[in-house]
Amino acid sequence: MKYTLDTEFSSLNGPKAANWMMDFQDIAHDAFADSNSHSRLLGNLLILEPYMHTLRQGLANQGRTLPTILQKAIDPLWDYLEGKKAVSDFQDFANNLYAATLDYNVGEEITEAQAEFSRNFVDIPWGKTCEWQILTWLSTLLMEVAATCGGRLDFEEFEEYEQEIDFSEMDEMLNMLADASIELTGTPLQSNKAVDVMNAWEQVSQTPLFRQVIERIQNGLKAALSAVPEQYPALREEYRRYTILPKEYAAKLLEI
After folding, report:
1. In whole angstroms, what is the distance from residue 118 CA to residue 97 CA?
2. pTM for the structure as a whole
3. Cα 114 vs. chain centroid, distance in angstroms?
4. Which of 155, 175, 198, 244 is 20 to 30 Å from 15 at the Cα level?
5. Residue 63 zone, left/alpha/beta (φ > 0; ψ -120 to 50; rest)
6. What pLDDT digit, counting tens, does each position of 146-167 carry?
7. Nearest to 53 by CA among 70, 69, 28
8. Using one digit for the tens of pLDDT, what is the confidence trace for 24-74?
9. What are phi and psi of 7, to 5 degrees?
10. Are 51 and 170 in contact (CB under 8 A)?
11. Does residue 38 contact residue 229 with C-beta atoms inside 8 Å?
């Protein structure tokens, strides 16, 4: 069976739903095969905004606010889409931000200037999984935009970048939300062995909560596929009011 973005996820049984999840990155790639980089970037942003809003709600329950670096990172991407900014306006920021996420995620050695940028602008505590995952996603998108538009690149992995904007970080988010939904719904997970995790994925895929997550992702990507540039500002305002999880789960997500 070939899964697509139009596949009705709620109609799939456990094993088939788990297969859809594992194929997600290819599904998204196929759906946008004939789309330009702007549509691909929009697809990412229409999922990022609800994810960030869920984070905003969860942080509010802890008496905290959304880290300012996240808004500073997503705004240039929207402004680029809307024709308000060129890559040259944010290429330095993109490289410095990517360095900060490399340092956090893999302990990459970075320059003193990059470290100073991180100290001055990255206001996310160490170990905050959701915040760092979103920041990593945003930094990757900024670098992919820089690469596809001939911007300055400080990192070899982007110097020969020939692909369009991809969906790899969205795939990481989906995996995280699947794991989080297992805990949020009390789905049994016997161990961290692959076979047990897959069994739990199959079970959680049948829950209303996770089906709602998938529906949000599918709807966001479909909206990006059909949107024209004139609609981008309205979509920006619309999707920042959505959530990737229902509000009552936002605080619990940050505790996982």
Report:
1. 7
2. 0.95
3. 23
4. 244
5. left
6. 999 999 999 988 877 666 799 9
7. 70
8. 999 999 999 999 999 999 999 999 999 999 999 999 999 999 999 999 999
9. -60, 130
10. no
11. yes
